[in-house]
Design goal:
globular, binds iron/sulfur cluster, binds FE2/S2 (inorganic) cluster
Length: 305
């Protein structure tokens, strides 16, 4: 559902999502991050909905009116959702590879409390290598089901899922069995937190120190259109390109993602566009030209005063 409000459109005003992913069928409905208030059901039936609803699972009707960030009730309820998501999630952002591009980190800053009220022991898991390229850090998992949908819908043969129920739920380590599939690496891109990370990139650099560039190659398995993250001439990691919603534009294969780590493997197109709200955009070279022009103009103005 896309909500519009005076002066804002699309991603500026869309509710945050942790489990919904438009490219994955049946995703959404698990995390409740996207709750909104429906103040008018439709033109035919203007009755407001009695409680906040998960917008990713609510059908849009003609004349429907939806309130998101202007409703104190929604903001309060979302605060509660964030608190729940953070009950077991470790606050290890300083050492987590996902920091800087973590949906939960952003959500925590925007809607979370400064302190946790949770007094019980958090559940922890050992880290598991799921094949040579992916690390599963279950302690950070928020049970969004996206990786299961990827394995189910993008790879040929899903052999992992959520096992147990309630606070005992965990992603089954049978995920190891899908690792041979050419598209299994996409679970890294859809994971909203640092639960599934790229072993070829782990602890190599903070993402905001790397320079993302759009690049492509002639690939027989996927479109070959990716973002390569550079440090000097070194390709630190390869990811899918992200659209304005932060979702993968196209799924990429494991060969492109894990095996092509030289600039000579790629035709580099241009700096990847980074949203200005992202920490990765700080001093981003994409804007350097404009920045220099601006400084030049200001200097001239000072000289003529
Ligand atoms: S591992 Fe990541 S993608 Fe999979 S359910 Fe957990 S948080 Fe979601
Ligand atoms: S994004 Fe709607 S419930 Fe998770």
């Amino acid at each position: 559902m896309i909500v519009e409000q005076k002066g804002y459109t699309g991603e500026d005003i869309a509710p945050p999502t942790m489990c919904y992913y438009s490219k994955l069928k049946t995703s959404g409905g698990y995390c409740r991050t996207c709750i909104v208030k429906v103040t008018k059901g439709s033109t035919a039936n203007p009755t407001p909905m009695p409680k906040p609803v998960a917008s990713c699972r609510t059908a849009v009707m003609d004349g429907m009116e939806v309130v998101n960030i202007t409703s104190p009730e929604v903001l309060e309820a979302r605060k509660g959702v964030v608190e729940f998501l953070l009950i077991n999630h470790p606050l290890d952002c300083p050492i987590c590879d996902q920091a800087g591009e973590c949906n939960l980190q952003d959500l925590g800053y925007e809607h979370g409390l400064a302190k946790t009220r949770y007094e019980f022991e958090r559940r922890t898991f050992d880290k598991i290598d799921i094949g040579p390229h992916i690390k599963l850090h279950m302690t950070r998992c928020i049970m969004c089901f996206r990786c299961i949908k990827v394995a189910d819908q993008i790879t040929d043969d899903r052999s992992h899922g959520m096992i147990f129920r309630g606070d005992a739920s965990e992603i089954s380590t049978y995920i190891e069995n899908v690792i041979d599939n050419d598209f299994s690496g996409n679970v890294i891109d859809v994971c909203p937190v640092g639960a599934l990370t790229d072993r070829t990139f782990r602890f190599k650099s903070r993402v905001w120190f790397a320079k993302p560039m759009d690049a492509h190659r002639d690939c027989k398995k996927c479109s070959g259109k990716v973002a390569i993250w550079l440090k000097g001439e070194e390709v630190l990691r390869v990811t899918s390109r992200k659209d304005r919603w932060g979702e993968a534009e196209e799924w990429i294969c494991n060969e492109c993602r894990f095996e092509k780590k030289h600039t000579s493997d790629w035709v580099i197109e241009k700096p990847t566009h980074i949203d200005r709200h992202s920490v990765i955009s700080q001093n981003h070279y994409e804007n350097l030209k404009d920045l220099k022009l601006d400084i030049g103009k200001q200097q001239k103005q000072l000289e003529t005063k």
